[in-house]
Q: What sequence folds into this?
């Protein structure tokens, strides 16, 4: 919770931009894509496969979301021992957002809104005591 408060404070917001009902609706709308990507990311993080370069890791890690016209960006962050972060598009950063935690099938999800995209992220236990944080940014459908 402290982390969420710090993020909200750094973004200049005191409260998430999405209300509880909207957060739950966004989590439901994007649940399948987030869960699929999270499972894939956990397989990558748990794999004994050694990638020859960061580019090879990124190519494999983001294969499930490439070509999905609804996904504007994807991130995998390993926190703890041997930390790393990769992004699609490469080098993209997750902006400071006011996240709201909501319950969803499969566990809690954090949801945010930057005015043009819906953001979802979830953390999971990874091997060796690490935590894996996966984030997806979804383009909004035109009204």
A:
């Amino acid at each position: 919770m402290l982390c969420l408060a710090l993020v909200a404070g750094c973004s200049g917001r005191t409260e998430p931009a999405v209300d509880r009902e909207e957060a739950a609706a966004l989590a439901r709308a994007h649940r399948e894509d987030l869960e699929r990507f999270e499972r894939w990311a956990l397989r990558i993080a748990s794999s004994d496969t050694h990638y020859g370069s960061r580019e090879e890791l990124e190519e494999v890690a983001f294969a499930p979301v490439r070509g999905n016209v609804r996904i504007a960006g994807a991130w995998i962050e390993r926190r703890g021992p041997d930390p790393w972060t990769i992004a699609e598009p490469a080098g993209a950063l997750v902006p400071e957002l006011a996240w709201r935690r909501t319950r969803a099938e499969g566990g809690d999800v954090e949801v945010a809104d930057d005015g043009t995209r819906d953001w979802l992220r979830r953390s999971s236990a990874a091997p060796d005591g690490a935590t894996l944080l996966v984030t997806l940014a979804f383009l909004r459908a035109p009204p």
In short: The longest strand covers residues 71-79.
